Amino acid sequence: MAALLRLLEDRGFTGAPRYLGQEGGADLLSFIPGTVPSRFQAWSDGQVRAAAVLLRAMHDATRGSGLAGRFEAVCHHDPGPNNVVFQDGVPAAFIDFAEAAPGDPLEDVAYLAWTWSISSTGTMPPARQAGQVRLIADAYGLASPQRQVLVDCVLERQARNVRFWAGFQARPATAPATAAQTAERIAWSRREHAHLFAHRRIFDEALARP
Ligand SMILES: Nc1ncnc2c1ncn2[C@@H]1O[C@H](COP(=O)(O)OP(=O)(O)OP(=O)(O)O)[C@@H](O)[C@H]1O
Ligand SMILES: [Mg+2]
Protein backbone atom coordinates (compact mmCIF):
# COMPACT_ATOMS: atom_id res chain seq x y z
CA MET A 1 0.00 0.00 0.00
CA ALA A 2 2.85 2.37 0.83
CA ALA A 3 4.48 1.71 -2.55
CA LEU A 4 1.17 2.23 -4.34
CA LEU A 5 0.40 5.53 -2.63
CA ARG A 6 3.93 6.72 -3.42
CA LEU A 7 3.54 5.68 -7.06
CA LEU A 8 0.22 7.53 -7.33
CA GLU A 9 1.81 10.64 -5.87
CA ASP A 10 4.86 10.38 -8.16
CA ARG A 11 2.62 10.07 -11.19
CA GLY A 12 0.57 13.10 -10.23
CA PHE A 13 -2.63 11.37 -9.15
CA THR A 14 -4.11 13.51 -6.38
CA GLY A 15 -7.21 11.41 -5.63
CA ALA A 16 -5.60 9.31 -2.88
CA PRO A 17 -4.01 9.96 0.49
CA ARG A 18 -0.26 10.53 0.50
CA TYR A 19 1.90 8.05 2.35
CA LEU A 20 3.72 9.90 5.14
CA GLY A 21 5.73 7.04 6.66
CA GLN A 22 5.41 5.04 9.84
CA GLU A 23 4.73 6.11 13.38
CA GLY A 24 4.73 3.64 16.24
CA GLY A 25 4.45 0.73 13.80
CA ALA A 26 1.40 2.20 12.08
CA ASP A 27 1.21 3.63 8.57
CA LEU A 28 0.64 7.36 8.51
CA LEU A 29 -1.47 8.78 5.66
CA SER A 30 -2.47 12.33 4.81
CA PHE A 31 -5.96 13.35 5.88
CA ILE A 32 -8.26 14.26 3.00
CA PRO A 33 -10.87 16.82 4.07
CA GLY A 34 -14.47 16.19 3.03
CA THR A 35 -17.17 13.67 3.79
CA VAL A 36 -17.35 9.89 3.38
CA PRO A 37 -20.88 8.50 2.98
CA SER A 38 -21.74 5.83 5.52
CA ARG A 39 -24.38 4.02 3.49
CA PHE A 40 -25.17 3.10 -0.11
CA GLN A 41 -27.69 5.40 -1.74
CA ALA A 42 -28.68 6.86 -5.11
CA TRP A 43 -26.21 9.31 -6.63
CA SER A 44 -26.59 11.98 -9.28
CA ASP A 45 -25.27 11.46 -12.80
CA GLY A 46 -22.58 14.05 -12.12
CA GLN A 47 -21.38 12.26 -8.98
CA VAL A 48 -21.29 8.90 -10.73
CA ARG A 49 -19.44 10.39 -13.69
CA ALA A 50 -16.83 11.95 -11.40
CA ALA A 51 -16.28 8.62 -9.62
CA ALA A 52 -15.70 6.82 -12.93
CA VAL A 53 -13.28 9.50 -14.13
CA LEU A 54 -11.40 9.26 -10.83
CA LEU A 55 -11.15 5.48 -11.14
CA ARG A 56 -9.80 5.76 -14.69
CA ALA A 57 -7.16 8.28 -13.59
CA MET A 58 -6.10 5.98 -10.77
CA HIS A 59 -5.74 2.99 -13.10
CA ASP A 60 -3.88 5.06 -15.70
CA ALA A 61 -1.41 6.22 -13.05
CA THR A 62 -0.44 2.61 -12.32
CA ARG A 63 -0.26 1.26 -15.89
CA GLY A 64 3.08 -0.15 -16.91
CA SER A 65 4.50 0.18 -13.40
CA GLY A 66 6.43 -2.50 -11.56
CA LEU A 67 3.54 -2.72 -9.08
CA ALA A 68 1.10 -3.67 -11.84
CA GLY A 69 3.48 -6.45 -12.85
CA ARG A 70 2.03 -8.61 -15.59
CA PHE A 71 -1.44 -7.17 -14.98
CA GLU A 72 -2.95 -4.20 -16.76
CA ALA A 73 -3.09 -1.96 -13.71
CA VAL A 74 -3.27 -1.83 -9.95
CA CYS A 75 -6.90 -2.10 -8.88
CA HIS A 76 -8.51 -0.67 -5.76
CA HIS A 77 -10.91 -3.64 -5.51
CA ASP A 78 -13.30 -1.79 -3.18
CA PRO A 79 -14.15 1.51 -4.93
CA GLY A 80 -17.62 1.85 -3.40
CA PRO A 81 -18.98 5.24 -2.27
CA ASN A 82 -18.04 4.30 1.32
CA ASN A 83 -14.39 4.47 0.30
CA VAL A 84 -14.55 7.83 -1.44
CA VAL A 85 -14.07 11.28 0.05
CA PHE A 86 -16.56 13.80 -1.38
CA GLN A 87 -15.71 17.48 -1.49
CA ASP A 88 -18.65 19.84 -2.05
CA GLY A 89 -20.68 16.79 -3.06
CA VAL A 90 -18.15 15.71 -5.70
CA PRO A 91 -16.13 12.46 -5.45
CA ALA A 92 -12.56 13.70 -4.98
CA ALA A 93 -10.43 10.84 -3.64
CA PHE A 94 -10.32 7.14 -2.91
CA ILE A 95 -9.34 5.93 0.56
CA ASP A 96 -8.98 2.46 2.06
CA PHE A 97 -6.45 0.78 -0.24
CA ALA A 98 -6.38 -2.36 1.94
CA GLU A 99 -7.54 -4.55 -0.95
CA ALA A 100 -5.49 -2.88 -3.67
CA ALA A 101 -3.55 -5.30 -5.87
CA PRO A 102 -2.55 -5.89 -9.49
CA GLY A 103 -5.62 -6.80 -11.49
CA ASP A 104 -8.04 -6.30 -14.34
CA PRO A 105 -9.48 -2.74 -14.36
CA LEU A 106 -12.82 -4.19 -15.50
CA GLU A 107 -13.20 -5.65 -11.99
CA ASP A 108 -13.08 -2.17 -10.48
CA VAL A 109 -15.44 -0.72 -13.09
CA ALA A 110 -17.91 -3.52 -12.39
CA TYR A 111 -17.75 -3.05 -8.63
CA LEU A 112 -18.10 0.70 -9.03
CA ALA A 113 -21.13 0.22 -11.30
CA TRP A 114 -22.74 -2.09 -8.76
CA THR A 115 -22.13 -0.06 -5.64
CA TRP A 116 -22.89 3.36 -7.12
CA SER A 117 -25.74 2.71 -9.53
CA ILE A 118 -27.34 -0.73 -9.29
CA SER A 119 -29.78 -1.48 -6.49
CA SER A 120 -32.83 -3.62 -5.94
CA THR A 121 -34.17 -1.20 -3.33
CA GLY A 122 -33.15 2.17 -4.74
CA THR A 123 -35.51 4.88 -5.82
CA MET A 124 -34.22 4.73 -9.39
CA PRO A 125 -36.04 2.34 -11.76
CA PRO A 126 -33.85 -0.21 -13.61
CA ALA A 127 -33.84 1.89 -16.81
CA ARG A 128 -32.35 4.85 -14.90
CA GLN A 129 -29.83 2.57 -13.21
CA ALA A 130 -28.86 1.18 -16.60
CA GLY A 131 -28.49 4.74 -17.92
CA GLN A 132 -26.02 5.46 -15.12
CA VAL A 133 -24.07 2.30 -15.80
CA ARG A 134 -23.78 3.41 -19.42
CA LEU A 135 -22.61 6.78 -18.18
CA ILE A 136 -19.95 5.06 -16.07
CA ALA A 137 -18.73 3.09 -19.09
CA ASP A 138 -18.54 6.30 -21.15
CA ALA A 139 -16.86 8.38 -18.45
CA TYR A 140 -14.35 5.63 -17.76
CA GLY A 141 -13.76 5.10 -21.47
CA LEU A 142 -14.51 1.40 -21.34
CA ALA A 143 -13.73 -0.38 -24.62
CA SER A 144 -16.47 -2.22 -26.50
CA PRO A 145 -15.42 -5.82 -25.70
CA GLN A 146 -15.45 -4.99 -21.99
CA ARG A 147 -18.87 -3.30 -22.23
CA GLN A 148 -20.29 -6.54 -23.57
CA VAL A 149 -19.26 -8.42 -20.42
CA LEU A 150 -19.66 -5.67 -17.81
CA VAL A 151 -22.99 -7.06 -16.56
CA ASP A 152 -21.46 -10.56 -16.34
CA CYS A 153 -18.60 -9.11 -14.35
CA VAL A 154 -20.99 -7.42 -11.89
CA LEU A 155 -22.99 -10.64 -11.50
CA GLU A 156 -19.76 -12.51 -10.88
CA ARG A 157 -18.70 -10.05 -8.19
CA GLN A 158 -22.11 -10.26 -6.51
CA ALA A 159 -21.94 -14.07 -6.50
CA ARG A 160 -18.39 -13.91 -5.17
CA ASN A 161 -19.62 -11.66 -2.38
CA VAL A 162 -22.10 -14.36 -1.36
CA ARG A 163 -19.32 -16.94 -1.31
CA PHE A 164 -16.97 -14.62 0.61
CA TRP A 165 -19.46 -14.08 3.44
CA ALA A 166 -20.72 -17.67 3.38
CA GLY A 167 -17.14 -18.76 4.07
CA PHE A 168 -17.34 -17.06 7.46
CA GLN A 169 -20.46 -19.01 8.40
CA ALA A 170 -18.28 -22.11 8.48
CA ARG A 171 -15.64 -20.30 10.60
CA PRO A 172 -17.56 -17.71 12.67
CA ALA A 173 -14.57 -17.00 14.91
CA THR A 174 -12.67 -15.50 11.94
CA ALA A 175 -15.58 -13.35 10.71
CA PRO A 176 -15.18 -9.56 10.69
CA ALA A 177 -18.90 -9.26 11.47
CA THR A 178 -21.54 -10.78 13.70
CA ALA A 179 -23.46 -13.87 12.57
CA ALA A 180 -26.52 -11.70 11.95
CA GLN A 181 -24.53 -9.18 9.89
CA THR A 182 -22.91 -11.98 7.91
CA ALA A 183 -26.31 -13.49 7.13
CA GLU A 184 -27.64 -10.07 6.15
CA ARG A 185 -24.72 -9.49 3.73
CA ILE A 186 -25.29 -12.86 2.10
CA ALA A 187 -29.00 -12.14 1.71
CA TRP A 188 -28.27 -8.65 0.35
CA SER A 189 -25.75 -9.89 -2.22
CA ARG A 190 -28.17 -12.59 -3.39
CA ARG A 191 -30.97 -10.02 -3.66
CA GLU A 192 -28.80 -7.67 -5.72
CA HIS A 193 -27.64 -10.52 -7.95
CA ALA A 194 -31.27 -11.58 -8.57
CA HIS A 195 -32.22 -7.97 -9.34
CA LEU A 196 -29.50 -7.53 -11.95
CA PHE A 197 -30.05 -10.96 -13.45
CA ALA A 198 -33.77 -10.25 -13.85
CA HIS A 199 -33.13 -6.90 -15.56
CA ARG A 200 -29.88 -7.61 -17.34
CA ARG A 201 -31.32 -7.05 -20.81
CA ILE A 202 -32.07 -3.41 -19.94
CA PHE A 203 -28.48 -2.96 -18.75
CA ASP A 204 -26.96 -4.79 -21.73
CA GLU A 205 -29.01 -2.71 -24.16
CA ALA A 206 -28.01 0.54 -22.49
CA LEU A 207 -24.36 -0.47 -22.75
CA ALA A 208 -24.66 -1.56 -26.38
CA ARG A 209 -26.50 1.56 -27.59
CA PRO A 210 -24.38 3.52 -30.12
N1 LIG B 1 -6.90 9.54 4.33
C1 LIG B 1 -8.09 9.80 4.87
N2 LIG B 1 -8.57 11.05 4.87
C2 LIG B 1 -9.74 11.31 5.46
N3 LIG B 1 -10.53 10.42 6.08
C3 LIG B 1 -10.13 9.16 6.11
C4 LIG B 1 -8.90 8.76 5.50
N4 LIG B 1 -8.75 7.44 5.70
C5 LIG B 1 -9.83 7.02 6.38
N5 LIG B 1 -10.69 8.04 6.63
C6 LIG B 1 -11.95 7.97 7.41
O1 LIG B 1 -11.96 6.77 8.17
C7 LIG B 1 -13.05 5.92 7.79
C8 LIG B 1 -12.62 4.46 7.73
O2 LIG B 1 -11.53 4.35 6.83
P1 LIG B 1 -11.33 3.06 5.93
O3 LIG B 1 -12.39 3.02 4.89
O4 LIG B 1 -9.93 3.13 5.45
O5 LIG B 1 -11.46 1.90 7.00
P2 LIG B 1 -12.40 0.62 7.02
O6 LIG B 1 -12.02 -0.11 8.24
O7 LIG B 1 -12.31 -0.06 5.74
O8 LIG B 1 -13.82 1.20 7.15
P3 LIG B 1 -15.10 0.72 6.34
O9 LIG B 1 -15.37 -0.68 6.76
O10 LIG B 1 -16.14 1.71 6.75
O11 LIG B 1 -14.75 0.81 4.86
C9 LIG B 1 -13.50 6.44 6.45
O12 LIG B 1 -14.86 6.21 6.21
C10 LIG B 1 -13.18 7.93 6.55
O13 LIG B 1 -14.23 8.61 7.21
MG1 LIG C 1 -13.43 1.48 3.96
UniProtKB/TrEMBL annotation:
Superkingdom of this protein's organism: Bacteria
Pfam families: APH (PF01636)
Domain Aminoglycoside phosphotransferase: 72-129
InterPro entries attached to this UniProt entry: Aminoglycoside_PTrfase, Kinase-like_dom_sf
Record protein name field: Phosphotransferase
Organism, as annotated: Glycomyces niveus
